[in-house]
Amino acid sequence: MTPKSWAGSVLVYNQIAWVIMMSRLLKTLTIILCITIGYSETSESSDHGKSDKKGEKLSHSYRVYKNKDTNEVFLTKYQKVYLRLATSPNKGDGQSVLLHSNINLKEAQPFMFLGPGKHKLVHPLGDVTGGLAEDGQDKSNVFSVTVDDDVPQATIALKNAVRHEDGKKIWFGKGLKGSISATDATSGVRWSYYSVNGKKYKVFNKSISFDKEKDYVFTGYGLDQVGLTSEVVRKKFSIDLTPPSTKKRVTSYEHKGNISPKSKIKLVGTDSRSGLNHIHFSISRNGKEELSGLYGQDDLDISKLKQGHYQLSWYGVDQVKNSESKHKWNFYLDRNPPKVNYKAAQDVYRFRGKVWVSTRTKIQLSSEDNKAGVERTEYKVGKKWSPYTQPFMLNKPDGRHVVNFRSLDKVGNYSQHFKQSWWLDSTKPKISLKFIGPRYNQGQKYFVGLQTEVSFLGTDKGAGVKSLHYSLDKAAEAKTYDKPFRITSPVPQIVSYYAVDQVNNRSKDKRLQIILDKEAPQVFFHPSSKPVAEKVIGGKKVKSHMKGTSIYVGATDDLSGVRKIMYSVNGSKKKQLKDSTIYLKQDGLMIVDVQVFDNVNNVSNKSYSVHIDNSKDMLAH
What Å distances lie between residue 316 and 54, 212, 440, 489, CA to CA? Predict the structure, then answer.
């Protein structure tokens, strides 16, 4: 309502002068001025208002408030007031009369105090013109009323818990207490009200515990003594009571609790509400802490730890200080690489610092690791590493081969690179048969004499010859050649022979036939003319032939054959017979000595005596 509706009201802003010209009455009556709001003198109801909708402020009535300590009276500028005279301060006692601002009006008219602050109703005790008492002092009665136009100010306090704001939400941890407080500079605060998550407002009288993990909307307002309410204050937040979840992750080089300095250890965590703040870790050995701190983004640096048993412990803390239980992981830091051994099996020959092998030689690698175990063993012949899965052999070309090998354990420790040189010999040796003494061949048939020795010679450009072997006449087992030998059997012999080098490469088998020829050739003499006489010379009968007679010499050999015929006459120097004819040009006794050699130097020696007679009687005869 506006002041224009208050017809007949006597109202002056900050001061109302009311003069009652009743001097006699003043001496006999005690007049009490009451300011009446509506139909009641004051409103002291403890009713906290009503509201049909959740989350809305309660409805509160305006009221007149009298401070019992200071006797100050407060009301709002929105309240209608009446003036009433009473003869007793006690309600119901004496007389009470409602004043009319206009006596011509049938009903009393209310009025309103327009502005905020103090308003005065003054009854002067002096005369009407001076307003002073007889002693000259102003003894007027002044009635004060304060108009409260200021709404209270409400605030929300959230305490006893860690706070975190992530840009989207405000988070609190355990133990959060909420409170509503209000201030009012004029009439003062009557009540504070609160609501949680839109429920009906209640009077706040003690701290509110937020002990459930969920989202909250905490609202409140203040009510002053004259019924004015503050703006609703609001806090929207969430409670996080759950600790984060963390775990360790070994992203490389880990096997059954064994790791190496190369191992990458990460600590990872999640928190579904306020988020992970940090992870605290500690690494200890035998109860003594070696490393500790807050885990960052990088892997844990274990490069300076010594070999041995350790325990890693860690726990995560979220943004509102919820801390999970400590995790523990026992591990062994393994710094020792595996040991690698090698072995060449079959066809191995060591000589003068070289190790010779064949294409059949199996190179075996073995590794051992006393902790984590062997992951793999590798070897390299040339430029490329290959995993070792089974014994391997070297391939051509012949000569030096350098084999590199190494081993890796299950936590990434590599052994040093080992090198071993092997000399490959894949070439077969060569063997040749040689005769010591006479021999003669016809194709693959070789004729030898009793004194002829059979020998073998082997050659090899690689590891060298280890042994020579032969067999006679298809013997079941070959003999190892150690020295020259002779053929003694008259039966033709099939000789098989081969060579073996130091890495057991075997030459091709060779065969040839050897025939023992131990018989000398047979010699035959045929004179060119018939004998004409017979003489006894030196006690021996000798046939006489005429002048011009020649001696034909013939020889045969059943095996190796005749190689040459040597002759001499009467002890002359021996000559080789060229055309099988010996010409006798002298007279007298002719002794022809003949030597026939076969192809293996078997010799037949034979003499033939003949008498050449040039006499006339012999010629006439």
Answer: 40, 21, 102, 101
Whole-angstrom Cα distance, residue 302 to residue 283? Answer: 9
What CA–CA distances, in Å, run from 303 to 203, 262, 335? Answer: 63, 8, 10
Residues 579-603 pLDDT 10s: 889 988 888 899 999 999 999 999 9
- How many angstroms separate the CA atoms of 357 and 505, rounded? 10
Q: How many helices (H) and strands (E) does the chain have?
A: 2, 49
The rounded distance, in Å, linking the Cα atoms of 167 and 319 is 13
Q: What is the 3-state secondary structure (H, E, C) of 12-60?
A: CCCCEECCCCCHHHHHHCCCEEEEEECCECCCCCCCCCECCCCCCCCEC
Alpha-carbon span 145 to 135, nearest angstrom: 29
For residue 352, count CB atoms less than 10 angstroms from its CB and return exposed for 0-12, middle for 13-18, buried for 19 or more: exposed
In angstroms, the CA 63 to CA 76 distance is 8
Tell me the pLDDT tens digit for each residue of 255-275: 999 999 999 999 999 999 999
Do residues 304 and 285 lie in contact, with contact meaning Cβ atoms separated by under 8 Å? no
Q: 92 CB contacts (<8 Å, ≥6 apart)?
A: none
- Report the alpha-carbon distance of residue 18 to residue 398 in Å, rounded: 139
- Going by the DSSP 8-state scheme, the letter that residue 577 receives in this structure is -
CB proximity list for 524: less than 8 A, separation 6 or greater: 553, 554, 555, 556
Which token pair is 514?
Answer: 């050897």
How far apart are alpha carbons 554 and 580 in whole angstroms?
Answer: 7
Identity at 440, one-letter amino acid code: Y
Q: Which residues contact 115 (CB under 8 A, 6 or more apart)?
A: 13, 14, 77, 147, 149
* Range of lowest pLDDT (100-114, 137-151, 552-566): 100-114
Find the length of the chain. Answer: 621
Q: Which of 196, 199, 198, 153 is nearest to 176 (CA)?
A: 196
Sign of torsion over alpha carbons 513, 516, 521, 522:
negative
pLDDT at 90: 87
Query: For 459, phi and psi rounded to 5 degrees?
Result: -135, 150
State the pLDDT at residue 45: 42
**Is the pLDDT reported for residue 385 higher than 60?**
yes
Is 582:553 a contact under the CB 8 Å cutoff?
yes
Is the four-CA dihedral 614, 616, 618, 621 of positive or negative sign? positive
Per-residue CA distances from 8 to 3, 109, 249, 532 (Å): 11, 8, 90, 217
Locus of tokens 């409602």: 98
> How far, CA to CA in Å, does 385 sit from each of 362, 406, 467?
18, 10, 38
Closest CA to 228 of 154, 155, 151, 153: 151
